Amino acid sequence: MTSSKSLSRTPLSAVTASTIASSLLTVQTSGAGFVDLTREVAKFTADASAREGAVTLFIRHTSASLTIQENADPSVLDDLMMALSRLAPEDAGWSHDTEGPDDMPAHVKTMLTAASLQIPVLNGKLALGTWQAVYLIEHRTRPHRREIVLQFVGSTG
Question: pTM surpassing 0.90?
Fold first, then answer.
């Protein structure tokens, strides 16, 4: 059981969500790996004059995905790619291989990660932790053009 002394919460903040701002972000990947989107999402938030609310990201693909992960040590991203490759290897005997041996593993890796993310916006800033960044994960071997819908819902000012 958790002691009430170990919990704290800031006072409630309430706003009227009067704005919906949307944009389509196009990213050219260079093949399998992580692409840091944090600055672009923060720029979108600033361009929308976001004050309080949430930014949603939605990737319009089934062989690439989104995640929030550590941004301090690049070896974390390397290890995550290795883990995903172990969970969905190319040589697993997949029946779906029309687009190449990396296609079905890419679909599995997308299923294991996320097609959408939601990030709170507090006082005009993304409420990410100190070591968190927003990433697109390209699961295919060759470069691809990826589209991500960005949408802010909340108050502006």
Answer: yes
Q: What is the pLDDT along the chain (157 residues), one digit of tens a residue?
A: 666 678 988 888 887 888 999 999 999 999 999 999 999 999 999 999 999 999 999 999 999 999 999 999 999 999 999 999 999 999 999 999 999 999 999 999 999 999 999 999 999 999 999 999 999 999 999 999 999 999 999 999 8
Distance CA 114, CA 137 (A): 10
Residue with tokens 């706003």: 15
DSSP the chain: ---GGG---PPP------EEEEEEEEEE--SSEEEE-HHHHHHHHHHTTEEEEEEEEEE--SSEEEEEEE-S-HHHHHHHHHHHHHHS-TTS--S--TT-TTHHHHHHHHHHSBSEEEEEEETTEE---TTEEEEEEE-SSS--EEEEEEEEEEEE-
